[in-house]
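Extended Data, panel c. Modelled sequence:
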Amino acid sequence: MARLGEILLSEKVLTSKELDEALENHVLHGVKLGTCLVEVGYVTDDDLARCLGKKTGQAFLTKDQLLTFGAQNLSVISQVAIKKHRLIPIGINGGVLCIATDHEYSPKKQTELEVFLGQKIEPVAVSGYAIDIFLEKYYGIQRPGRFLQKYSRRKTPEEATTVVEKVKKEEDAPIIIDGIEWKCFGDVTLDEVTARLYDDNFNSTLNRGDVPLSLSDAAKRLSNATSRDDVAKTVLDFLSKSSETAALVIVKDGVVRGWKAFSNRKKLRGFETFSSYIETLPEVQQCVMTKKPYLGNTMTAKTKLLLQKLNFTGDRSAFFPIFLQERVIAVLLCDESEKLNPIEIAELCRKASYALDILILRSKLLSC
């Protein structure tokens, strides 16, 4: 079966450079590839729906069609099935319930779904973006990729991402970095349930009184990461032994966005909603521009406001860059306690950079 990126390129609705950019957003922000493409304006939802139909061999609906037909059938199945499982009933054809979904189901899974719903179904392809719009309009669930529109306001100058032009059988071979085998990572994002389990596991890990995570253990965990949140969890787990407060932010096209954070050994919920232009955070901007760690106590008012959100009470802070192909795409910030080892943290961020690099490379191989 052809992959989505391959179909979009063959249909000439997308360029290789735009696909590379979308794949980067997909991995860094945990948003589905198709959603990234539509939110930043690289493809229309109509084109995406048509290509999804070609990929799956199923009938397909556009966003506008989903909003029309879905609104007429909300009472056909349970609200849990709609909101949690992203199944939108759009009508009945010959006694079979037509369900719009952004998932592809195996025959076994479809049978299980029919048992769950209590009736025969016919899947209809629809984009994740269209499902997000539907859930936002009728259930008030904010769509995860809404902030990506900000990135379309400015283009990065001639910042061509390296394109994988030749993909051989070597794609399945392990990658060895610093003596650690780095696995090929999957195209993974977290659904609502998995994210909740992740949060619970995150907090329980930080609150354990066991032996702190060593740098070598962190490297091994990063080598087994399957999503950006695995990377974040490992970095913050490691920081928990030396810092009361730590946070990761994504930096892209002049915008700084919250990723993951903890304070007093507990995950800070809602940090993902933080957003600011980099010009308002000079310490972060200096870290990005110099591509070097920044340590000090000369914090601006805006940076202090950010740290207040993290319940930061110290006098000194530290900022460490995380790279993607020699560009700073994330910054780790924490309190500069006596226990903090800047050299060790910089090395940790270097290994986290490897992990994100390989995540995007793997996603690229899976999409084309």
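Residues 151-199, 201-209 have pLDDT under 50 and may be disordered. This feature is highlighted in the accompanying rendering.
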